[in-house]
Write a structure and sequence with these properties.
alpha/beta; single chain
Length: 289
């Protein structure tokens, strides 16, 4: 955890998002908006194109003596699992899904992996009034799907059906469910059109992957949480909203998980959600203008 002096903005501090591709990431805008609102004028947040091959070298510099200015990292695809062997420890939350989207550097250089996607999903849903559901569907089977299952462990009282695009992931998904206390059932992707009648559908797939399901949205849909934010709306989200269903998007997740990252990295107890959301929304609006 950064020192109180660093949290107050008295020393130069750095953070960044790593991934490949990463040029599209809104994280620099969100974190920078938070620093501005919190008065952290000596904090900066960058963006680095880093793939799995380049990750060990980057992380080694972060943990060494030359990395003392670093507060932490945000990680996106394809690094959320690749980073795990490079860290000193994991939080129980990150270990439960074997996925890290946040690295925190302690003053002694120790690196801890955490997962803010999980509380980010829970908080985003809570902000829209979704605090309990009887069942749910997850589209996709990657690291974000694992985080979705962990989030659903907190709000779903019944079964969670996961539609995997890669059939070989079914056993792993059921294993996640067992560890997290969730009744996870798996189904083949080609049957995903039957999944959309659940009270809550979480689409954890990359952009474009769920577009083909837009025509299968039921007449009276429940809640859709589509983690894509660019392009927005997705075809599925647009069809869902057109049928009168409630829709959360990738910006909802991004803001809430980034807010938790800001809190972990800076030591501030409450991130400025409104300022962060405004920055993200403005960027997305400018992109389509």
């Amino acid at each position: 955890m950064p020192s109180d002096r660093a949290a107050a903005g008295e020393g130069r501090r750095r953070a960044a998002v790593l991934g490949s591709p990463v040029a599209h990431s809104l994280s620099p805008l969100l974190h920078s908006a938070a620093y501005c609102a919190l008065g952290l004028d000596r904090w900066s947040y960058g963006r680095f194109e880093v793939d799995e091959r380049g990750l060990p070298g980057f992380v080694a510099r972060l943990g060494g003596p030359s990395g003392s200015e670093w507060a932490g990292l945000s990680l996106t695809m394809p690094l959320k699992r690749a980073v795990i062997p490079l860290l000193d420890e994991l939080t129980a939350r990150a270990a439960s899904v074997e996925a890290v989207n946040t690295v925190i550097r302690a003053p002694d250089g120790r690196l801890t992996g955490d997962n803010t996607d999980i509380p980010g999903m829970v908080e985003a849903l809570r902000a829209r009034g979704v605090t309990r559901v009887e069942s749910a569907t997850v589209l996709g089977a990657g690291a974000t799907a694992a985080s979705a299952i962990a989030a659903l462990a907190q709000i779903c009282s019944g079964p969670v059906t996961v539609f995997a695009r890669v059939p070989g992931r079914a056993a792993e998904l059921r294993g996640w469910g067992e560890r997290l206390g969730v009744d996870v059932r798996t189904a083949r992707w080609e049957h995903a059109e039957h999944a959309l009648s659940a009270p809550l559908v979480i689409a954890s797939t990359p952009k474009g992957a769920a577009d083909g399901l837009a025509g299968a949205v039921p007449a009276a849909p429940g809640v859709l949480f589509d983690v894509v934010y660019d392009p927005w709306p997705t075809a599925l989200a647009a069809a869902w909203a057109g049928r009168g269903g409630a829709v959360l998007g990738g910006l909802d997740l991004l803001v809430h998980q980034a807010a938790r990252q800001v809190e972990l990295m800076t030591g501030h107890r409450r991130a400025p959600l409104a300022a962060m959301r405004a920055a993200g929304a403005a960027a997305l609006a400018a992109a389509v203008a």
